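We read letters as residues; the fold follows as tokens. A sample entry reads:
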Amino acid sequence: MLFPQLAALALSLSLIPLSHAAETVLGVYMFHRHGDRTPKSTPPANLTALGYSQVYTSGQYYRNRYIAANAALKINGINTDIVKQSQIAVSAPSDVVLQNSAQAFLQGLYPPVGSALGTQTLRDGTNVTAPLNGYQLIPVALVTSGSGSEDNGWLQDASNCANAETSSNNYFSSAEYQATLAATNDFYKSIAPAVNRTFTDSRISYKNAYIIYDLLHVAEIHNATIQSADLLTPETLFQLQTRADQHEWALAYNASDNMRAIGGMTLAAEVVDFLNKTITSQGKNKINVQFGAYASFLSFFGLAGLPAVNPDFYGVTDYASAMTFELFTNGPAAPFPAASDLQVRFLFHNGTTNATNEPVAYPLFGQLNLAIPWNDFVTGMSKFSVGTTERWCTACGNTTGICAPFPQAPSSGSAGSAQSKQGSGMSNAVAGVIGAFVTLAVILGIQALILLLGGLRVVNKRMLAHPVMQRESVELGKM
């Protein structure tokens, strides 16, 4: 973690406008949250019209950033109008909200091309125009893990990782949890009339902080009338959000028991693997967009040390939030640069991204520089990445299904410890569960990593919509 003065300096550096004049972007990996949806407490959850609009708008922004003919950061060699399928990879878990969000995003990223570009002439001279004004069909790969993420009320329900579930459950026996549960008991009972049509009295407590907040957050957006609305003052809603943030952060990341951050670990491996493929393919693999739930955001934030830069990274990300990893060079793009000439930049925006609410660059791994040399980026990610089936099975303690072939060694309770014993290479995922990693020494490209992610989400739009946020919330763990 950074010392306070270094954290302040890092944050101030992130506010300096970035100059991209001499840069060439070679590849981009993006992890994106779904748009606005109906509440988790009344499944099945569905993407709303507002959510559709949010992710579509985000797609339009990133088109103008990376793909459009006049894009300031156009990915080198990417097709501008008609998508080239080999240049793009898109995936999402088997979840209606996330799958539909991915499709909506793609409509903004590569919109219909119209009759001029969307018409083909057959051999017999017949002209055939694609339906929907040249609507472009882009496949969304199905990630089998994380199925039903937005219908699950508990953060680890979709992880399929036994030790991650155990680790998160440990929070409920911790002194912090017990103290917060007792301290907030009267607060939650006071708002019971606003939620008792959905939750029984026994469920209205800090134990269910997120799904209670989620229900009321959705109601505040969509419902013309809310039962006992007079109870939901701005202060009460803010307290509900703060407690939901505290609750979900504790389930997604713990510095001394990092197995609960399995979503961030597999995400890190996927990022490195894809960007490495951009390098080994000489720039043929250009953009990867993964849709997932907020649990993976929180896990990655903790693993990468981002709360030390800005404490707002403790908060649950808002609908349509996105974090992006840009692989770029400051030199010529042809011939393709050597690894030593490549850098990576991490950007994040909380909520829907558009021309007036753009992503902000933040330093990773406790460093001060916003751009990290490629080899240093791989080293930093390898400290917590989990990217092979065997490593995932060992870390998670799973012994059945795809994990049956892998004997379980005595667990140290830490994925990082298990990884240090096994080296830092990555390989292909089996049956779409995990994905591939790269060996740290040679940075070999293998096969695509399919994330084991799951989760949920919701937060106040004041959080991280701008790089500096003065949160007036109660300190985590205190009233």
In short: Residues 4-115+128-146+283-384 form a domain with the Rossmann fold fold (CATH 3.40.50.1240).
